[in-house]
Amino acid sequence: MKNATLSLLAFALLLSLPGFARTPAQQNAKDAAVAAAAQSQNSDAIPALPAHKSKTAPANEEDRISREVRHELVMQPYYTLWDWLAFRVNGTTVELLGDTNSIGLKNDAVNTVKRIEGVEKVVDHINQLPPSPMDDDIRHQVARAIFNWGGLSRYSWSAVPSIHIIVNSGRVRLEGIVDSQSDKDAAGLRANGVPGVFQVTNNLRVVKD
Fold it and tell me: Which fold has domain 46-50+58-128?
């Protein structure tokens, strides 16, 4: 009887430990907080997309580095609409962000930026997405749903599409730029209608010339 009592006390102590007795609602709240923090971290990052507006001369050394980093990332041979690269420049330090599905892109991006004149340090925060046949299928279905619909097809015409589709464990994130709020909303709705998609985060930015 004494041993049974001690076992019950030990189990009660385990349940009181942080993280041991977490309800599904608590876990969902934690996941949402992590996602919100990640979104906040990337909100001021510069996207690796072709310059949307006319080029102007860089104002200072940091601007020059930013322009060269953007150019080098956009020109990566394995950079596709399934990948998303972004960056921040702080003096001579470049922080690389984003998610890559293409094998080798993460290392190539880091090594290329390291060779840019004036860059002394590269902080690599690029996430390599795990291989997943299910996610691959969702990627192609979402791309067809978006780019085969009305005026959204024009966003797939360039060598580096301005809409990027990031998929991880059935969760879809749309990154890039569009010309109007209606295009952003339409892309999100089309992605949401794809079977097997658990969640869609629409980070598309509306940018007009």
Answer: Alpha-Beta Plaits (3.30.70)
Query: d(Cα 96, Cα 153) in Å, to the nearest integer?
Result: 29
139, exposed or middle or buried, with CB in 10 Å at 0-12, 13-18, 19+? Answer: buried
Residue in 108, 69, 71, 107 with CA at minimum distance from that of residue 88: 69
DSSP 147-194: HTSGGGGGGGSSSS-SEEEEEETTEEEEEEEES-HHHHHHHHHHHHTS
- The single residue listed with the structure tokens 């940018």 is 207
102, amino acid identity: S
Spell out the residues 6+ positions from residue 200 whose beta carbon is closer than 8 angstroms to its own: 171, 172, 173, 174, 188, 191, 192
pLDDT in tens, 100-159: 999 999 999 999 999 999 999 999 999 999 999 999 999 999 999 999 998 899 998 877
What are the domain boundaries of the chain? 46-50+58-128, 133-206
133-206 maps to which CATH number?
Answer: 3.30.1340.30
